[in-house]
Amino acid sequence: MFKIKAAQPGFSLTEIIIALAIIGIMIGGTLGLTSYISQARRRSAEANLRLYKSQIDQYRQDVGAYPASLNDLKDRPSDESTARKWKGPYMEVELQDPWGAEYQYVLLPKGSKPPYELYSFGSNGEGSAEAEWIRA
After folding, report:
1. Which residue range is the domain that position 115 belongs to?
2. Could you give the residue ranges of the DSSP H alpha helices within 64-115?
3. Strand, coil or helix: what is 134?
4. For the segment 24-74, what is each residue's pLDDT rounded down to a tens digit?
């Protein structure tokens, strides 16, 4: 009579194609999400820098000079004449960019235009090229 063939172990071509399609969709979604997160971090850094810039300007208006460091926006300056005029804290949050590094603030010599530089190194950190820095 007829013998029934036992099922052979393994996957059919259809099952393999479906599995590959699912994996491809997952990878495509992950790449899109990574790009979205990168753009969101950059926009967040730009917004924070604008906020810090306005707080630096407020500090200057109150004290009559630019802060020596960004920490002067959070903590009372150690210089007594400056501390008397200080109306802070101007910032109550950590001064870190979305990648966990500190924002960079460099007070330039008097008469310089602009009087200071405020930026983040961006996603690549300190090793990034200046063109990749995010500026206020």
Report:
1. 14-135
2. 71-74, 80-85
3. strand
4. 888 777 766 777 788 888 888 888 888 889 998 998 999 888 888 888 888
